[in-house]
Amino acid sequence: MSSWSAILPWPPSNNHYYTVVRGRKILSSAGRQYAEHAVIACAGRNRPVQPLAGRLKVEVAARPPDRRKRDLDNLLKPVLDALTKGGVIADDGMIDDLRIVRQEVSPHGSVTVTVWAL
Hints:
The chain is of the alpha+beta class. The protein is built from 3 helices and 6 strands.
């Protein structure tokens, strides 16, 4: 089974990932900035020569930057988009098993992502 793992920056929540401009929903400046940093992190960490394809399993370990209350599901969209844009996976629609777990608080926050080809 092929796998890949990396530590990515803490993403903006899904509530701040998008903005509406002239009636169109687009990536916000925070979303674009996160995507840029996350793609660099993906490329610098043994990115597969070809994006992982087929059925996939993804585990996300979230280390928030502080103890504020937050919904973990709001973190997934930016992270999964970064995996696609970063060339790690072919399409996030191929994920059959998706898990997220909250871990201890860490300065600046981060997410550890592990992807397996099933």
